[in-house]
Amino acid sequence: MEFEENFVDDDFLKGKCLMNSEVALILQHKYEKMCDEHSTNQVFEKSLQYVKRFSQNNNPYAVTQVRHILSSYPISEVDLCVLGNLCPKSVEESIAMVQPKGLARLDDEAIKKILTELSLLKKFDM
């Protein structure tokens, strides 16, 4: 029996992944509610700091658009989040980051288009 069979079950593989930017928005909303109730904890706050630090987009509209752009291509949820989180700069870097054959269905021009769209969103996210 291989390690993956014990570690990753079908529910995990079928589940929806979230990018750091999406998690940051969710946790920030929850944090604001918790502060109103005066009930925050250190683990929650550190988790929020982590996802904010590694989020590529801060604007809720940009976060939504990143998911929209990436989900319009035939890639897995995991690959979508990897690309959304790491924001590769080249086709080669993109292909190296995703699961084997993850971008195989796309030609280099499609991958370049994805990267261009994501970089434009990043420029206007400030």
TrEMBL record:
Coiled coil region boundaries: none
Q: In which compartments does the protein localize?
A: Nucleus
Q: What is this protein called?
A: DNA-directed RNA polymerase II
Q: Which UniProt keywords apply?
A: Nucleus
**One biological process term in Gene Ontology:** transcription initiation at RNA polymerase II promoter
Query: PANTHER family of this UniProt entry?
Result: DNA-DIRECTED RNA POLYMERASE II
Instruction: Using the UniProt record, give the first listed, main subcellular location.
Output: nucleus
- Family named by the database record: Belongs to the eukaryotic RPB4 RNA polymerase subunit family.
Single GO term (MF):
translation initiation factor binding
Signal peptide bounds: none
* InterPro entries reported in the protein's UniProt record: HRDC-like_sf (IPR010997), RNA_pol_Rpb4/RPC9_core (IPR006590), Rpb4-like (IPR045222), Rpb4/RPC9 (IPR005574), Rpb4/RPC9_sf (IPR038324)
> Which Pfam families is this protein grouped with?
RNA_pol_Rpb4
SUPFAM superfamilies this protein is in?
HRDC-like
Which intervals hold domain RNA polymerase Rpb4/RPC9 core?
10-125
Pull one GO CC term from this UniProt entry: RNA polymerase II, core complex
Gene from which this protein is expressed = LOC107061272
Superkingdom, according to UniProt? Eukaryota
